[in-house]
Design brief:
It is a single chain. This protein is α+β, with helices and mostly antiparallel strands. The protein has one domain: Carboxypeptidase-like, regulatory domain (Immunoglobulin-like, Sandwich). The protein contains one helix and eight strands. Strands 2, 3, 5, 6 and 7 form a five-stranded antiparallel β-sheet that branches. A three-stranded mixed β-sheet has the order 4-1-8, with no helix packed on it. The longest helix has 23 residues. The relative contact order is 0.25.
Length: 116
């Protein structure tokens, strides 16, 4: 009888261990944002500073990410949680109008910003 109880207990522990190990190894999806910066001729802008921030959102959370656009005028950002962020783009004295982007985990949000 004790042997059967020990085997049953071992099987139950093994099942819970397998469930715990396999579920804890899964990575949570991140939300991605791709910002494309263009000029007045709709050409990509290299070297523009793209600042995503939560300055327009109520506290307590502060989220910031600053990147420089590549040769294709793009910046790539990742966030682990759902966020609505303000986009600020500058290059030298040129400033783009501020806009917002909604980023959801597991999805890719895109936004094109035109420098004036």
């Amino acid at each position: 009888m004790k042997n059967k109880n020990f085997i049953l207990f071992s099987i139950i522990i093994a099942c819970f261990s397998v469930l715990f190990i396999t579920s804890s190894c899964k990575k949570k999806p991140v939300g991605k944002a791709i910002i494309t910066v263009i000029d007045s001729l709709n050409q990509p802008v290299y070297g523009a500073i793209v600042n995503l921030n939560s300055n327009n959102n109520p506290k307590p959370g502060v989220v910031k990410d600053k990147k420089t656009s590549d040769n294709n005028g793009k910046t790539y950002h990742e966030f682990p949680l759902e966020v609505i962020l303000q986009i600020e783009v500058t290059k030298g004295s040129k400033v783009a109008p501020k806009s917002n982007i909604h980023i959801i985990p597991g999805e890719t949000a895109t936004q094109t910003v035109k420098l004036k």
